[in-house]
Amino acid sequence: MPDATPADRIASQQSQSPRFLLLYALAVAGGAIAYVPFLTILLPVRVEALAGDASVDWLAYAAMAGALAASFANIGFGWASDLTRALPWGRRGWIATGLMVSSLLLANMSVVTHLPVLIAMLVAWQFALNMMLAPLAAWAGDTVPDHQKGLLGGLLASAPAMGALVGALITIPGLASPDTRLILVAVLVILCVAPALLFGKPAGFPELVDPVASTAVRRPSQKRGVVVRMWLARLLVQIAEAALFAYLYLWLRSIAPGFSDNEAAQIFFGVLLVTVPVALWVGRWADRVDRPIFPLTIAAGVAAAALLSMAIAPNLVMALAAYAVFGLSAHVFLSLHSAQTLRVLPRPERRGRDLGLFNLTNTVPSPIMSVLTLTLVPVFGFDGLFVLLSGLASLACLCLLSAGRIRHHGK
To answer: Which CATH number fits domain 16-209: 3.30.390.80, 2.40.50.140, 3.40.50.720, 1.20.1250.20?
Structure first.
């Protein structure tokens, strides 16, 4: 008899319910709503109100303290949720506790009137937020089978778009005061995360949570080599994405001095919006043909080419087109990578801790990007920075090429 095709194998396997996948994606979007508007808009506004002319320095201190807290908390609470995953409340207890504590802290940021207290409260909020985010990420590894990881990645692409959309909506002039904005964000986060906890009811998949069964279906090479290359590839792409996230507006202003912050925000949100259907389509294709790593390799290569195009763009139109291609490919890469990482982690009993180590690829790029920018831009301009970032994205592509072809359950 002929070998079964990937589509045949997938059709014969049990799948997680669409309801849980949608509720889970909404919960992850709630996490993005918690930190994107706050860290990019609401926190800088609060720091500026308290620090005045020293706001840049204080904001740098806050960003560094928050990043360190997030890094340690994500690993720690991921590990803690590993230890309790067999209990009746399992990871959901940590998620629910983190949701309530982080929401209360966020809603009360407005009462702080001293900058050191604000930074201390920010650190506490980061710990509480990652008490929610770390077990939430590991929960997908416990509940979503490998042949739906691409679909999951596509659904996760909606999270950053939702975060950016909420940030744009709550800052509409006259809609809400700065203090009310914090409360609105906290309420929206609860409304997004709570339904998954209350009504998700995911189907069980023993092979995803049993250490013996999981080890039996994965190649030894997936335990180290592939995991390391996946980690390194994400770090390299995240460095490039972080640089564009921080300096997109200044770069566009260097090309067209009349370019406004509102136009930059619209372009950023537009790219995120287009990412959602593209990531869904690519993720479903990867599931159907059982090629989880191939789309990541292509996305990293396209991002590298787009960055090089940005470096040599002769005018604003070409620069915007190149950025749109980069933004689309980078965000598709990051969304699908988040889901496919769950496929290659070798030990389910420490999944939360290992995902915390992968989370370092989200926090480490900021200081690296700052050093690269301060070193290169004054001498070579943004063109020199983009050439270097293109090289980093190319290395990410090579890392994934060398990872080989990973099929369902490592077969």
So the answer is: 1.20.1250.20
Q: Which tokens is 263 given?
A: 């136009």
pTM of the complete model: 0.83
Q: What homologous superfamily does CATH list for 220-410? A: MFS general substrate transporter like domains (1.20.1250.20)
| Residue count (the chain) | 411
Show contacts of 107-115: CB within 8 Å, 24+ apart.
Answer: 107/182, 107/183, 107/186, 109/42, 109/43, 109/46, 109/182, 110/46, 110/178, 110/179, 110/182, 112/46, 113/50, 114/50, 115/47, 115/50, 115/51, 115/58
Give 189-245 pLDDT, tens digit per residue: 999 999 999 998 888 877 787 765 555 445 444 556 788 899 999 999 999 988 887
Q: Are 379 and 206 in contact (CB under 8 A)?
A: no
**Per-residue pLDDT tens over the stretch 90-144:** 899 999 999 999 999 999 998 888 999 999 999 999 999 999 999 999 999 889 8
| Residue that is written with structure tokens 């077969």 in the block | 411
The closest alpha carbon to 125, from 140, 147, 109, belongs to 109
Amino acid at 163: G
In 345-408, the DSSP E strands lie at none
CA-angle at 182, arms to 31 and 102, nearest 5°: 45
Structure tokens at 369: 């990007």
